[in-house]
Amino acid sequence: MVLELHVWGPAFGLPSIDPESLAATALITQTLPRNQYQLIQSSPSAVPTRTYLLPPSIPTELEATDISPDQLPTLYNPTTKTHHSGYSSIMSHFTSLYPPPKPPSRSAAATTTAYTAFLTSHAAPLLALSLYVSSANWSSTVRPAYSKILPFPLGWTEPPAIRTAMSRRAEHLGMSSLDTDAMEEKEEAEREAAAAQGWMSAPKGIGKGRGVGGAMVPEQRARIRLEGLAKEVLDVLGEVDWKGEGVEAGVRCLVWAYLALMVVPEVPRGWLVETVRGKYTRLGEFVDWGREEWFGTGVEGLPWRERMAEETVVSVGGRFVNGLMGDIPGFGEPWRRWWARRKLKVTGRVDALQEGSGELWQMAGMGVALMVGALLWRKLPQLGQPLQIWQKPLPGFLGLGAAGFVLTTFADQWR
Amino acid sequence: MQKREEGPWKAHLNINIAGCSSDCAFESQGHRGRKLSAALRLSTEFTAKMASTPANWQWPVPRPLQQLFDYFPLVTYGTAELPARAQATTSDSVPTLFVFASEDDARLGAPSFNPGCLKWQTFLRLAGVAFRVLPSTNHASPTGALPFLLPVRPTTTPIPAGKLHTYALKHGTSPPSEPTTLRLEAYHSLLDLPIRNAWLHALYLDPAHTDLLEVFYTSPASSSPWIRDALRRQLRRAAEAEILKTGSYLSAAAAGTAVVDQEQVYTAAREALESLAALLAESETGWFFGEQAPTLFDAGVFAFTYLMVKYMDGNGEGDLGGMVKGAGDGELERHRKGVLDAAGWGEEV
């Protein structure tokens, strides 16, 4: 039996760019010998439960099994023919496959559940601030990493969508000022609105950028607040000895994964790295220890499966087109909902809440009507005369028509 | 600086002169001088005109209009009194807590059906603050979210949920203590994430509880079936988005394909309730973290367990009440009853 683990691809010298995928990889390397599992580089749009724009052709071995929506990481067990999506269900599936010699105590299990929830609700937004919201870090480090792990055209559609989702995740922290692209757009829009209302606006650069504040990047300006946010999370994590005996392997891997993604990537605005390394040295050491212990052989040493097998032009193209459809303003949202529900129906998990498809057809109908209208409009002859004549303006007074003619005559006489 | 500012001006003049000279190339020197001075005079006149623009703008108002406007304002009203209803709803003697509740429940001071409101309602009762309850909606709240508290009348500044804790500690007769352990944060995220998600899913997305959603939120809002329908869709979509925003749905949400996985939501909730029960089993006092009296954390847990047991007991897959009762050795059920007693509600509600 060879388990298949579908994960986000490697980045920053770590086996995965996504914390849950990273944690799952760490867990599987500790639990299983190298020849009993395979790692498959993927992205959520390519998880094998998907059917593309082609007619739904579900592989026969997947029939009548529990298929979850596309999430990464996903573990496929060929013996039981089941998919397990999300870190929690992978963790529990592992525990059922390879029960630890001594079942965890009740309080250890409770700690695992609590800290898993804590990481998802608190550490994930913090990580999102550092890697995704901050424009500088995103454009110089994270986006190139995504481009490297996604096959060719997908690098255009998927990373921006991920960034949007991640920023939404960190919205409640109120640090959107780190996203300088968005801030500039906002300022531009404000300036235009003011101009439209008749206000004179000072030229760019006046009144701003003076003094110490102007010379600092947003991360420096918000440094104290950012450190406060990091402290809220890291204080709680620093409380526990993660290398210790009383900690279950599952939650240890997850904590390590989040901390590793905070510390390891070399980002230009490294406030989070500096905070962890400077004030929480024990957590920093834990990251180094885990990296050495679990991935000492390097990322390439892991049993990756050749990626070309599934990635035909058609499938990648389908994912790309789907991504594009999801980005059409006004239409994308219903499209995504419809697509997701359709997939559930295909996989035999009919949701009781069916609202998506009617709306999508409405939108599609309106779109088609608009396009047909536009085409007809362009085909119609112009209003007024069917024949339009354009005359070259005449020199001198002749351009003024009849009066010009009279004037020209006068002028000739004057001469 | 001054010198440099002169630059463009000079250049402009030069161009003028040059332009002029090319136009009047055949004219004499004197002629050109006159023309130039005329151009300069024109420009000074222009600036003078610019400066005096506001004065010129005022046209005389036509006489009939002026006569008409002489009649205004006809009457200046004094400041209006608060409506009689407002006098009745707020009170001189007790502060008022605005929560989601039905009229009858509010009159009796019964628990609210919204977990966020119930948490604070319970906490204020535990802290020994005397207050009364009024049903309200998010639109009434200054922060956009219930609950909020209106203090006794001379103070008119409402207190939002975020500041209720300090208020209760200051004005309560038996202010609860606050556990200092950092583990609290970790366990608190169980309430924020898996348990809240399960509640949202059961109430909003699970068709088994549509009637509950109707009674709680849509029918008090409007009597029109159209509006109720639209409101229900809106609520459902918001709840779905809220669940998808969290956890490992994130990457799938980015790919635009995320659908709430019911089984996953309920499994996570069951684990979370087990975990809370285990935490409770460690404590000897029956309250979380070994406190002598129920704290804010107890109120938060109670807000969910109480509502789950009351409204969602024995309903197929979304049997959250059953999960609460079955968690651990029934610690959460005992805890629920304990908080009911401590908050002075007793068994009847």
UniProtKB/TrEMBL annotation, chain A:
Protein name: Tom37 C-terminal domain-containing protein
Native species: Immersiella caudata
Superkingdom as given in the UniProt entry: Eukaryota
Coiled coil (residue ranges): none
Keywords, sorted A to Z: Membrane, Mitochondrion, Mitochondrion outer membrane, Protein transport, Transport
Gene Ontology, cellular component aspect: SAM complex
Localization of this protein: Mitochondrion outer membrane
UniProt cross-references to PANTHER family, sorted A to Z: FAILED AXON CONNECTIONS-RELATED, METAXIN RELATED
Pfam families to which the protein is assigned, alphabetical: Tom37 (PF10568)
UniProtKB/TrEMBL annotation, chain B:
One GO term (biological process): mitochondrion organization
Signal peptide: none
Pfam families, alphabetized: GST_N_4 (PF17172)
Domain (Thioredoxin-like fold): residue spans on this chain: 115-208
GO cellular component, one term: SAM complex
Source organism of the structure: Immersiella caudata
CDD domains to which the protein is assigned, alphabetical: GST_N_Metaxin1_like
PANTHER family, sorted: METAXIN RELATED, OUTER MEMBRANE PROTEIN (SAM35), PUTATIVE (AFU_ORTHOLOGUE AFUA_1G13180)-RELATED
InterPro entries in UniProt: Mito_Protein_Transport_Metaxin (IPR050931), Thioredoxin-like_fold (IPR012336)
Identification of the protein by name: Thioredoxin-like fold domain-containing protein
